[in-house]
Amino acid sequence: MGVALTRSAQWTAAGYGTRTLEITPLNEAILKEIMMFVESFIYKYPQEARYVFVEPLEWKTDLDPSAFESGYIVGETTVKSEEVDENGQPLLFLSVPHIKIRNFGQLSRFLLIAKDTKLKEAQACVEANRDPVAKILGLDYNTMKEDTSTVNILDKVTKGEDSENEIKMKIARLLSQLDLHLLNHSLKHISLEISLNPTSVKNDIEMLKNFSGKGEQTVLESISYTSDYEFSNGCRAPPWRQIHGEICYVLVKPHDVETLCITCSAEGVFLNGGKTDNEGEINYERKGEIYKDLVTFLKEKSEKFSENMSKQEKRFSNKKEKKEPTNDPPEKEEAAPVQKAITGSGKRTLEKNQINFGKSQMTKRLEPSLSWKATVRFKEYRSLLRDPQEEKHRRRPERSGPPVKPGRAQLVRKSTEKIEEIVSESSSESEEDEEPLDRQEANADLPSEYWQIQKLVKYLKGGNQTATVIALCSMKDFNLAQETCQLAIRDVGGLEVLINLLDTDEVKCKIGSLKILKEISHNPQIRRNIVDLGGLPVMVNTLDSPHKSLKCLAAETIANVAKFRRARQAVRRYGGITKLVALLDCGKSSAELAQSSLYDARDVEVARCGALALWSCSKSYTNKEAIRKAGGIPLLARLLKTSHENMLIPVVGTLQECASEENYRAAIKAERIIENLVKNLNSENEQLQEHCAMAIYQCAEDKETRDLVRLHGGLKRLASLLDNTDNKERLAAVTGAIWKCSISKENVTKFREYKAIETLVGLLTDQPEEVLVNVVGALGECCQDYENRVLVRKCGGIPPLVNLLVGVNQALLVNVTKAIGACAVEPESMMIIDRLDGVRLLWSLLKNPHPEVKASAAWALCPCIQNTKDAGEMVRSFVGGLELVVNLLKSDNKEVLASVCAAITNIAKDQENLAVITDRGVVPLLSKLANTNNDKLRRHLAEAISHCCMWGRNRVAFGEYKAVAPLVHYLKSDDPNVHRATAQALYQLSEDADNCVTIHENGAVKRRKMENLFENCHLCQRKVETHLRCVARSARDRSGSAAGVMPHGLHRWKCSVCTVTRRGSKDASSQ
């Protein structure tokens, strides 16, 4: 944590000890990650949470003593925790404004008490405790020292043997992992930030100059640089400020605010201290937040600028539509001047979603237009309608189009993302690809309803209250699910009227308006127009209404509209998440919910509508966090106990979306939600079954959850649901849940007992890919057991598995190769795979562009080579196969490298193949990989080196390519498999006398005691020590020995425990 705060966090430029954290998105992201770690610490590590810090964490807090309740002794200006240490000192002590906290448990509770101010409290704590690790674990672990590393910290902790030191070691490891996580998170955050350049800034300023001047229609009164001199790189800032990334300084005079002095830098645009009164110099210190560009900054600072700028952009849009001909090539030519006029900032301005390119037509037309095609041009501007504020969470592709139910096809995407190790998450913040439907041309006949609805809209605009209510009721009688009726309302300006009615005080008008908006907002175009017209803030405000019918209708409409990222962001920005979570609290226990009166049923309906809206909003990572912080999980858990199926579906759907995040999974376990999910699997409602299975699929990443599913009888129900294959969405969810539950061996035994494996084999054909991915994944886990491998073979599962190797779905290929690799361990199954040409198909997957597929295919080849007769001849029969394997050693992916090294280990057992790969340059490529810290790669690399040593002068070549010395350092690993592989490799390398010298010079004998390396192999300990003593003697006698010839008295012996052939003296063999 100290390294991340020192290297990644952005501090002010003041001297050491007085610096504070800058207000930047990166710092906020780091603080949120730290808060997330501390908040969950008390639940994840209860024993470590009780550990008392060496020194308390102290800072100044704004929290009032009255905020503390049970568990604390509260005075007027002081607060003491009832929990004390062994010396009787309180673990939390507040003397306003100073606070001292002495363990993680109290720190976690403090953040929960702080609620909305916890980000500010976390910042104050970090600023006051620059090296928290030293205060938590002691000065020996001061992370401010440059030579401190995780290994050094753990070495210090392991000196003691008592339980306190064990807890210290675990806390040190957790803090080290947090530190690494913060560094990686910072790198990802920085890589996603938009960087400005002098050209784009200059284009923005020139564009704004064209729209500036006197008059109310201009966007600004004036805009000018503070310096007329421009450097060759396009910057106008002084050289000593350019090193900070600053480009230029601009004086801007908007119509409605004072003159602003603005700094344009590579990281964004911000307000500086302005010009000094005396000398006119610029105060370079930042005075506010950083904005992504100049136009965004000015829109936030000046309402007049925002209004006039939108008008200018609409003018460009209208001009383009008027000039746009019917054929495509001229359309591009006409678009050129418009694009030129809005280059730079113009494009980025659209990213803030302030305008809609069809809105100007929509607001001005009072007569219907048949120019459907020119109304909204989403395809052309979709790439501009992006909000970079949440780009960091765009780790997963989002569902597109209304026909896709929440959760459908998510399993395929989720499995792919897990394989790709893309951080996080379930659904993401990426823009939904909703395109406007192609409309009929002008000569098409429109139904009479179209014209009737447009007349009703005119009555809405000009009628009194009674006429308005009558018009709304009449409009509701039309079939609003029909697209013609929906667009008729929009085209005549009805959407603006309906949204304006929500601002009135008449409840009847509001209800009528919301009923219509709820129906027509199923249309992708309509919901985008609602957002553009500012409808969401009004709907969010309606959630506070005392009328329950209004709350329900507003929540349902929000649920329909929040199908794309910009809408979900707007709901959160205007406080909608907190209000929707509040709707879930219907004030009834689970038993009372089942026996509600008619009046109380309205409360239940309000909660259902709130859950429905949260379901739509929960497809955003940021919204998930907002739901959790608003206390949504306990309320969802309580609603999950009800018997109302129409309530359960959105509740489970929300949990299913949120369960992709680790914080939610921990909270789901704490709230005992798994038991109710399993219970609802027994429902007759197929949609509810689907979402429960999907939620189990998401949560079953954790072993404890998998055990809970088994203990509550969920495995048997999942196995029985496999028999119904008509509903493919449900089948995909069920097979996904079975796949994740199969990771636990105890669950695999149960599935075999319930005859689920035979059913899964039957699903290998005639199923969609989202089902196949999960079925094959489940079989891959089940086939880790011998009995199941035999069962799959006897049920005829090998041929369909081999047939799936010719597909293109990445997730499916990864799972298929894993399943075939597991089956290949059995010789009889291997014969079938070989007969079906499965090995050749696996080898061909080494050319796949996806690293995960390459790695999985290479792992699967290992048992295939081991269990095939005449494996050497089979490998040589693949034209170019050996060269392909060797070239994969140039990959940057650690998993690919480890799997290829394992394959080379098996290939090198055949002397002819070893000779071929030697000629292809395997020795230098393996040697380049020696300096790695990845234990998995170390193990298989050492094994590959040991087998490659058995040809020609490869031993000498490994020494020449500097591969010997790094191998010695492998003995510091904590993995015994790495030790065994390294010992074998060092044995083979020590056949060369020069390598013996290298081994000795790198301190192999002194590196560690052998009993630490081979704790369960006492015979191996003594003989390996003898071998290393002989290596040392060989080094001493090197001057008297011929190159490559071992000193007299050395002979070979074989360890009876680890079966590694060693070398030692004759005296050693008698030991």
UniProtKB/TrEMBL annotation:
Keywords from UniProt, A to Z, are: Coiled coil
Coiled coil residues, start to end: 667-694
User: Repeats (ARM): which ranges?
Assistant: 534-576, 880-922, 962-1004
Residues covered by region (Disordered) = 306-364, 383-444
Q: Which Pfam families match?
A: ARM_PUB
**Regions of compositional bias (Basic and acidic residues) in chain numbering:** 306-335, 383-392
Superkingdom per UniProt = Eukaryota
Sequence ranges assigned to domain U-box in this UniProt record: 619-808
* Name of protein: Armadillo repeat-containing protein 4
